[in-house]
Amino acid sequence: MTYTVLVTGANSGLGAQMSGVLAASGAKVIMACRDPVRGRAAAARIGGRTEVRALDLADLSSVRTFAAALPGEIDVLINNAGVMAVPHGTTADGFEAHIGVNHLGPFALTGLLIDRVRDRVVTVTSGLHVLGRIHDDLHWEHRRYRRWLAYAQSKLANLLFAYELQRRLAAAGRPILSVAAHPGVTATEGQRGDRSLSGKILAGGRAQAVEMGALPILYAATAPGVPGGTCIGPDGFLQRQGHPALVRSSRKSYDRAVAADLWTRSEHLTGVRFADVITGRCRPAASGPSPASA
Ligand SMILES: NC(=O)c1ccc[n+]([C@@H]2O[C@H](COP(=O)([O-])OP(=O)(O)OC[C@H]3O[C@@H](n4cnc5c(N)ncnc54)[C@H](OP(=O)(O)O)[C@@H]3O)[C@@H](O)[C@H]2O)c1
């Protein structure tokens, strides 16, 4: 049987690196890219069995179209795509860019595909989640916008989501895994996004090569025996560099009440109801998502 892995943000950085490794090891890789032209250029460089599909996580209608058009089942979903410390902006659905692209888009995508995942869902977070807090004002509408804190909020949301998904899958008796992973500090376009001094400090100083940064995510995606509801990251000092290991995330990331509340808000905002999805009765709300005010 073909082993199929879906990688979001597969045209550059960690996504392209992982796609290359997975394709070289014989997997079929579905490369979900915001810009299919750049996606196809990356696929041509990578070789192997790849398929490029258009997916814009900043637009829930694109997420729905992508999920509806995707044929068959996948073994692994890697929620890798993300924006890092970008200036204030909003998605097509009115969500702040970080929480929209990094959390709400992947939340909706995972919900719409979960019945077709055979093995596991990997959600890529960041060590910077430690600076994050899930605010009532999720979209930074009523306080001064701070790009790194907006990024940190979205990366904490990734962990809360990954751990809560594992609890819900287990409760529903679904034998698939939800695992979080992070690449430490890795040299990619995303990592070089903010060139200010504070940006360089927050991005974590010296970066490891993309080949190393991809390893924890690849390990989370493929290693047998990885426990669900855990996080894989680099084993070095402050989890910035090194080889894949089971790592601890912040105390806040294990807060079940915050996770459950974020889940409810995410369902409301995206219109994707996981409770139905997990039990095999996926019916995304016909009316679509709610405006970004929940
Ligand atoms: N590099 C690090 O040190 C580091 C550290 C911690 C966590 N991470 C995480 O690792 C993941 C990958 O980042 P990276 O470092 O490889 O950065 P990257 O090279 O900038 O890659 C990010 C990918 O996400 C895609 N993307 C952005 N917005 C999107 C959207 N609206 N819809 C679909 N795809 C979108 C980008 O597509 P375009 O090319 O079209 O923009 C690109 O393919 C992110 O989740 C990031 O938070 C990275």
UniProtKB/TrEMBL annotation:
**A molecular-function term among this protein's GO annotations:** oxidoreductase activity
Q: Which domain of life is it from?
A: Bacteria
* The keyword Oxidoreductase belongs to this UniProt entry's keyword annotation: yes
Alphabetical list of InterPro entries matching this protein? NAD(P)-bd_dom_sf (IPR036291), SDR_fam (IPR002347)
Keyword Oxidoreductase (UniProt): yes
Alphabetically list the UniProt keywords. Oxidoreductase
Report the family membership: Belongs to the short-chain dehydrogenases/reductases (SDR) family.
Q: What is this protein called?
A: SDR family NAD(P)-dependent oxidoreductase
Write down the species: Actinoplanes aureus
